[in-house]
Amino acid sequence: MPETLGFIGLGNMGAPIAANLLKAGYGLRVYNRTAAKAAPLVEKGATLAPKPADVAQPGGIVLPARSWNALAPAEFTFPSAR
Fold it and tell me: Rounded to two decimals, what is the model's pTM?
């Protein structure tokens, strides 16, 4: 099986992309501010992450699919960027 990816943002754009990644055989750890939007993906095998940082793993790939608004900087703050 291909590697597991992290995915942030399950809105109109992100949910279909994440669903296609699952169909392609990738494992997914997903995060969305509204956790209920992740339910269809979790039913298909994705793992729900309680916070954005939990979708990442050392050396892993995280795909963000969300608009940039006032909340985005808090969701995308990484120790190396401080």
Answer: 0.78
